[in-house]
Amino acid sequence: MKVPSDLQIIEEIYKRHVDDYEEWKEGNPARTNKNYVPVDITAVAKSLRVDVDIVWGRLYYDLDNRYSYQKSDNSWVHLFARRADTDKDCVHFPYLVSVLSSLRSKRWQLWVPAIFSGLAIIVSMASLAWTVRSDLHKEIKELPALESVRTETVSPKVQDETQAKGNDLKETTEKSITNQPIKPTLDTAAPSSGAQEGAAYQ
């Protein structure tokens, strides 16, 4: 079962009976007292979608008990009265308006900090997102420059190192060839037949 708040009950009574209060005239047969306005509890309960006894009990046992006060002449001012002269189930309408204003003010006192806290969180998240986006955009812009610097600074160094290694290898090879001894070539071929004949003739 839905449980209406104090603010919901009082607001509903106010909306339904503000015209009744403003239309009061002396000798008006609708009610006998200007300040105490009869409440249509059945209609209020139907609008709030709760049982009639729930609304009546909240008015009589809770709200009237909290807000009623005794004046200096020992008379009582009731927020809700079971009977005012000949009228039944009445609210002290000017007092009800005061209570309504107080409840609305308390509601805003709770909501305003929550709203500002929510806005602060949203602003912080937006600022963080903007910072991340700016940093990414900056890095993307710097990529071509970094590639250019890398080409200009790294490539000559690599070339110089390669060239130095090649020169070292060339010098080593040349030294190895220069220092190697030259061996004479021996003619191991067999003597010709003419030479053999000459030798025999001698």
TrEMBL record:
Residues 151-202 are annotated as: Disordered. It comes from Desulfurivibrio alkaliphilus (strain DSM 19089 / UNIQEM U267 / AHT2). Residues 158-174 have a biased composition (Basic and acidic residues). It comes from the Bacteria. This is Uncharacterized protein. Keywords: Membrane, Transmembrane, Transmembrane helix. The chain crosses the membrane at residues 110-132.
